[in-house]
């Protein structure tokens, strides 16, 4: 691992409004649908999650899909819907940035900019967002080693932005029973190596709705600073990732059993 590093392990707390991510007490809950599908869908989700208990509203508007025929997101229109829903519920929002061409408008609307698994290795994009004065949620690449993940965070930090929240979302293994293999050992390792706050995404980490709650508990038990959970008003009708999305009632149960 590189000897010269900006992120040396000294504890960093990322602040979004009144939220402090990195203190571990209490954990931060980020929830919402994989994709913003309509104004009505995201507004219903935001207001319901607020009532149940959530800190940050998530929703994808630019979607990196494996198939070019899959739903690609609503783009800027979806970004406007997400922002409006967040404001109505009094919640900050996080959404994914896929390319530099959308950076200015995503930075204008979003409180946190997510760099997804597929873009963890997009070093040009990482350099560019390093110049922003905006919290960055950096997801682990689906095949990334610990060192590669650390170096991705370094790309952002070395260009001036240390407001980085790491997200463990599972890595690909040889067993395809689950969507990915959720590497919870990465939680204490990354905290020790970088000092950055880290959350866990058990939805992508397992790809199985029934595993989201037990793996959420496991994530918090090993020191995660929060959770990122996919929740949809009607998962069977979701345009993306419905099989791993919780219903409102399932999310309520998860919060009740935390």
Automatic annotation (TrEMBL):
What is a GO molecular function of this protein?
aldehyde-lyase activity
Q: Where is the DAHP synthetase I/KDSA domain?
A: 14-253
Positions the record marks as coiled coil are: none
Q: Which SUPFAM superfamilies match?
A: Aldolase
Keyword entries, A-Z: Transferase
Checking InterPro entries in the record gives: Aldolase_TIM, Class-I_DAHP_synthase, DAHP1/KDSA, DAHP_syn_2
Q: Which Gene3D superfamilies match?
A: Aldolase class I
Task: Report the record's Gene Ontology biological process terms.
Answer: aromatic amino acid family biosynthetic process
- The organism's superkingdom is given as Bacteria
Under the heading Pfam families, the entry gives: DAHP_synth_1
* Protein's UniProt keywords contain ATP-binding: no
Protein name, per record:
3-deoxy-D-arabinoheptulosonate-7-phosphate synthase
């Amino acid at each position: 691992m590189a000897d010269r590093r900006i992120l040396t392990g000294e504890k960093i707390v990322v602040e979004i409004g009144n939220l402090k991510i990195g203190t571990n007490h209490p954990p931060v809950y980020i929830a919402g649908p994989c994709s913003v599908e309509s104004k009505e869908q995201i507004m219903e989700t935001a207001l319901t999650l607020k009532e149940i208990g959530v800190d940050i509203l998530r929703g994808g508007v630019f979607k990196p899909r494996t198939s070019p025929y899959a739903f690609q997101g609503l783009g800027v229109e979806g970004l406007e819907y997400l922002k409006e829903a967040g404001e109505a519920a009094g919640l900050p929002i996080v959404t994914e940035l896929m390319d530099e061409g959308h950076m200015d408008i995503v930075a204008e609307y979003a409180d946190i900019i997510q760099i997804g698994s597929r873009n963890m290795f997009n070093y040009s994009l990482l350099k560019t967002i390093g110049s922003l004065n905006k919290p960055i949620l950096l997801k682990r690449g689906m095949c990334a080693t610990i060192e590669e993940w650390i170096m991705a965070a370094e790309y952002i930090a070395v260009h001036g932005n240390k407001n980085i929240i790491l997200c463990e979302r599972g890595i690909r293994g040889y067993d395809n029973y689950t969507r990915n293999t959720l590497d919870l050992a990465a939680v204490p390792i990354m905290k020790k190596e970088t000092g950055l706050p880290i959350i866990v995404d058990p939805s992508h980490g397992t790809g199985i709705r029934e595993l989201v709650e037990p793996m959420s508990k496991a994530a918090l038990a090993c020191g995660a600073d929060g959770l990122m959970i996919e929740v949809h008003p009607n998962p069977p009708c979701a345009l993306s990732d419905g099989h791993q999305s919780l219903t409102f009632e399932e999310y309520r149960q998860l919060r009740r059993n935390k």
